[in-house]
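Q: Could you fold this chain for me?
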Amino acid sequence: MKHWLLKTEPSTYSWDDLVRDGRTAWTGVRNYLARNTMRAMRVGDLAFVYHSGAEKAVRGIAKIVREAYPDGTATEGDWVAVDVEAVRPFTRSLSLGEMKKIPALQQMVLLNNSRLSVQPVTGAEWEAIVIE
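A: Sure. Below is the predicted structure, expressed as structure tokens.
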């Protein structure tokens, strides 16, 4: 199993929206590296749902339930979507500021390439965040 981080602007689609819906298509990704990352996702992989914008915090864990398929929101290009479902919320959000203080996360993509909307997360990073 691999781990991922999915960034979302909460005013567009939030963790609470995912909990309400139970399952959603993760669409609208228009970055080639993020697209290729989505193509590597497999059913059963887990992902942090991270609110970008003003909040900047991990809110919960989602599971990949459908692997990459053509993104129906794309009007041109070779873009993909994956389906995710809510697994569990964090008991409290873990902020970006808190994450920056965790030694095991210093090489994390989020801390070094904050603009990438879909990112891999190493096993060690996953464990450090889940423990927090």
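A (continued): The chain has one domain: 3-131.
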